[in-house]
UniProtKB/TrEMBL annotation:
Protein name, UniProt field: Replication factor A C-terminal domain-containing protein
Gene3D superfamilies tied to this protein: Nucleic acid-binding proteins
SUPFAM superfamilies: Nucleic acid-binding proteins
Provenance organism: Castilleja foliolosa
Replication factor A C-terminal domain: residues covered: 34-146
Family annotation (InterPro entries): NA-bd_OB-fold, Rep_factor-A_C
Domain of life according to the entry: Eukaryota
Length: 168
């Protein structure tokens, strides 16, 4: 069974759809933008804000020493029609990278004492062609500065070669 129940469209479709949509795009990861992790509340999974006493959840008001580490990776993807920024969050990112955010952060801290750049595990994503299941929400329609959520990815080389018609 083809896991791509939704249509596969080109990246330009992210900016040209006229209604909320969900579909697959086939694109190359060309860059990881900004920070790739955040401290999360263990109750609400929301971002924690650093305070003088640690980290606090603005929703449940719980205070933590560190909180949970979660992935929130904005990556730039490209194919022949356009480029786009997409967001890979915890479960999708962990499945793609193959290591938990907590473990990757520990590994990165040991490898790079200067904390510069991104971990090698993320560097290896650059130039990979994948299929991404993306969502265009109402507020993103015709908005070229949007970052689109990814709910799944597909790395199967057979499927990628079938849908790789848009890639450079």
């Amino acid at each position: 069974m083809d896991p791509l129940i939704l249509p596969v469209r080109n990246v330009d479709s992210l900016y040209t759809v006229n209604e909320e949509s969900e579909f697959w795009i086939c694109a190359i990861i060309v860059n990881c933008i900004g920070n790739w992790w955040y401290h999360a509340c263990s109750i609400r999974d929301s971002h924690l804000v650093e305070t003088g006493l640690g980290f606090e959840c603005s929703i449940c008001q719980q205070t933590y020493n560190n909180g949970l580490l979660r992935y929130k990776m904005q990556v730039e993807v490209i194919e022949s029609s356009a480029n786009a920024s997409i967001l890979l969050v915890d479960q999708v990112a962990e499945a793609l990278i193959g290591i938990s955010c907590h473990d990757l952060r520990l590994k990165f801290d040991k490898e790079r004492k200067d904390f510069q750049g991104i971990p090698d595990d993320l560097e290896r994503l650059i130039d990979r062609t994948l299929l991404f299941r993306v969502t265009v929400k109402q507020h993103q329609i015709h908005n070229e500065s949007s970052v689109f959520d990814v709910s799944n990815f597909e790395a199967d080389s057979t499927l990628i070669s079938q849908h790789n018609q848009y890639t450079r």
